[in-house]
Amino acid sequence: MFKENQVKLAIAPIGWTNDDMPDLGGDVTFEQCISEMALAGFTGSEVGNKYPRDTAVLKKALHLRGLEIASAWFSAFLTSKPFEETAEAFMRHRDFLHEMGAKVIVVSEQGNSIQGQMSTPLFEEKPVFTEEEWSLFLDGLERLGDLAAEKGMKVVYHHHMGTGVQTTEEIAKLMEGTDPAKVSLLYDTGHLVFSGEDHLEVLTKYMDRIHHVHLKDVRADVAEKVKENKMSFLSGVKEGVFTVPGDGQIDFKPVFELLSEAGYEGWFVVEAEQDPAVANPFEYAGKARQYIREMSGL
C-alpha cells in the first residue's frame, strides 16, 4: 500500500507516562519507555516530559535503540498572551527539534483550553473563540509558521478536544484563514471521532495540508459515558476513552488507503494516552504495531 520509505512509524510516550497527569506512569523511566518502543517495532518517538533536553544525551539514548524524534507538542497562547511570549518559547522549542532532526512542529492553542482541567465538563464548557481571538490566533499561527520556515520546518496544527479548534467547522476556519505555505494540519483520528466529527471527510478535504498524522482509537462506550456524565477530558482519559489503533471503534483501513492514494509522506504516530497501570504500554504498543502491519502493510 505504501512505498518503501514513504512513511515512518513512531509512538508517543504518553502511553507510558502522562504529561498532563504525571501520576499516570510516574514510576516509568525514560529508558524503559524508549526501550519498549523499539522492542515493539517502532522507529520514532515524540517527546515526553521525562526526555532529556540535552540533545547529545537524547541522541545517544535514541540511537542505541534505532529511534528518531518525529516531533514534539508546543503549547501556544496566541489568544491569551502577547505574541512575543509565545514566539520566544516557540523558537527555543523549534531549535531543539531542529537539532534532533525533526521536520515538523506540533502546535496547539492553549488559550482558554480546558483539556488540562480535571473537573471542567468537556463538551459543555469547550472554549469558543471570539472573532478577535480568531484574528489573533490565525495571524499568530502564520507568524509561527514563518519562524519554523527559518529552519526549513513546518508548523502542523493539532486540533484537540477541549480547545478552540476541535470541530469540523473550527478546523475549516483555521484552514481557510491561514496560508498553506505557513500552516499545515496534524490529522488526529481519535480527537475527531471523540468530538463527533466525520474523520474521513476531514482527511479527504484537507489531504494536501496534512503533514503529520496521529493514530488514536476511541472506545465508543467510554466516549458516550463522558458525554452523558459531563466528565472532563482528563477524566475521560483516565476512564480509557482512548486506545491504540485496532482496539476501539475506528476502522483504520480507509484512513490508510486514502493517505496511501494521496502519496502522504512523513510520520504516523501512535498516540493513545491511557493509565499504564490498566493498559500495559508495552503490550498495547505491540498490539498497535501488529494492527498497523495488517491494515497497511507497513
UniProtKB/TrEMBL annotation:
Gene3D superfamilies: Divalent-metal-dependent TIM barrel enzymes. Its EC number is 4.2.1.44. It catalyses: scyllo-inosose = 3D-3,5/4-trihydroxycyclohexane-1,2-dione + H2O. Pathway: Polyol metabolism; myo-inositol degradation into acetyl-CoA; acetyl-CoA from myo-inositol: step 2/7. Residues 38-294 form the Xylose isomerase-like TIM barrel domain. Keywords: Cobalt, Lyase, Manganese. GO terms for molecular function: myo-inosose-2 dehydratase activity. Its cofactor is glutathione; Co(2+); Mn(2+). It is an enzyme of class 4 (lyase). HAMAP family: IolE. Belongs to the IolE/MocC family. This is Inosose dehydratase. It comes from Halalkalibacter kiskunsagensis. The lineage of its organism: Bacteria, Bacillati, Bacillota, Bacilli, Bacillales. The gene is iolE.
